[in-house]
Amino acid sequence: MISLFEIFKIGIGPSSSHTVGPMLAAKRFARDLEARSELGRVSRVCVELHGSLAHTGKGHGTDRAVMLGLCGEEPHIVNPITSGVVLRKIRETGTLEVLGEHAIAFSESDDIIFHLEKQLPLHTNGMRFTSYKADGEIAWADNFYSIGGGFILGENEPAAPAAVTPVPHEFHNGDELLRLGKQRELPIWRVVLENECAMRPESEVVSSIDRIWQTMNDCMERGMTAIGTLPGHLNVRRRAEQMASRLRTNLPSDPLAALDWVSVYAIAVNEENAAGGRVVTAPTNGAAGIIPAVARYYRDFIPGADREGVHRFLLTAAAIGILYKKNASISGAEVGCQGEVGVAASMAAGGLVAAQGGTNAQVEHAAEMAMEHHLGMTCDPVGGLVQIPCIERNAMGAVKAINASRIAMNEPDGHKVSLDQVIETMYRTGLDMQSRYKETSLAGLALNIIEC
């Protein structure tokens, strides 16, 4: 069973598939060299990026991520500020210290290769790492795939581990989850909590959920105070700080002020993400603002909101994310932005229902509805940067999630389309989508917007 803490991972921006995954893969390759007793004999490492990683890797920080990963950094602990010093040293000296202990010659232009026309067989986000000895002989080479949401796979490993900790409530699709909840008289959030507690003590589960929520809040607060221009050639200015300041002076009687704040929360997170700041992958970085914004809406604007309600929100959202991860995809490079913003909105809609004490059926209805109205959304980042249209899409997705939750909680009867059906539809739609609309910046807005 996929864990909540695999769906929600603390890392850095701007992309879970292009930054977080490649950094993890690079460190794993370095660790493999160490485990094979080859590290001390390596004089060079070459990284080849394929598919979407090649097309938008520069704008998404993939080159920087693999260098930091080879140095031994990991997304959840790397310092977004001091990492720039490490990268500058590599570029100035032409030397990279693998795992911080073994120096090799490294030329960014020669040793990170972007293959625009080639793909590795298992996934569009493929990477090949090759290490060489001083005489030019290959010491060790391996392929890795960044399959969305910061998940990585090695060339010959299964998508799920062969041995897993048994959990009390195993489920594989939405129907099973609903049936299990009905049979055992459990809300969805309790199903996930008890599964997590089978893998670690409950006190650790709860404190880790609190840490995720605190990281989300910290990110929103930073985003609402930061000013200036985001990195990259588009010169996109930050807007969350000005928007928040304007809202604080607005009349409190504005009936839609709460939704304005939701937009600010989402934009604040994704501006931080675009700047390479610390965010929570939820379930991806490109969609990282939706779940924090909707959870903050619950906390700030729903009477009676409390800490336990936030826990119910995140536990339920994780269950929905698990269903998408198991039965479809959360990779924009594989299924387009419907797999990122659409999935995050679906998770947030169901989570908001649970936070307010809604039934399992209402959770499922809200999650289905939120995805149904994101079907077909392409991933077409302008200039290969996670800025346009990604930042505003998080605000729109968050508002859709709230709307879906309200409709579901006010709808007395059942609904025609199930969550399982919409998950399958999303996946099939993604497979039918032309590759140029899937995080390559070769079509859509990326083709039709003048960047300068």
Quick recap:
The protein has 452 residues and is of the alpha+beta class. It has helices at residues 4-7, 16-35, 52-60, 62-70, 83-93, 108-111, 174-184, 188-197, 202-223, 240-249, 257-274, 290-301, 307-327, 332-335, 341-355, 360-372, 390-410, 419-432, 445-448, and strands spanning 9-12, 42-50, 95-98, 102-105, 112-115, 126-133, 138-146, 152-154, 278-281.
Could you walk me through the main structural features you see in this protein, from its secondary elements to its overall organization?
The chain is α+β, with helices and mostly antiparallel strands. 51% of the residues lie in helices and 11% in strands. The chain contains 19 helices and 9 strands. The protein has helices spanning 4-7, 16-35, 52-60, 62-70, 83-93, 108-111, 174-184, 188-197, 202-223, 240-249, 257-274, 290-301, 307-327, 332-335, 341-355, 360-372, 390-410, 419-432, 445-448, and strands at 9-12, 42-50, 95-98, 102-105, 112-115, 126-133, 138-146, 152-154, 278-281. A 5-stranded mixed sheet has the order 5-2-6-7-8. A two-stranded antiparallel ribbon has the order 1-9. α12 runs antiparallel to α13 and α15 (341-355) runs antiparallel to α16. The longest helix has 22 residues, at 202-223. It is globular, with a radius of gyration of 22 Å. The model has no long low-confidence stretch (mean pLDDT 95).
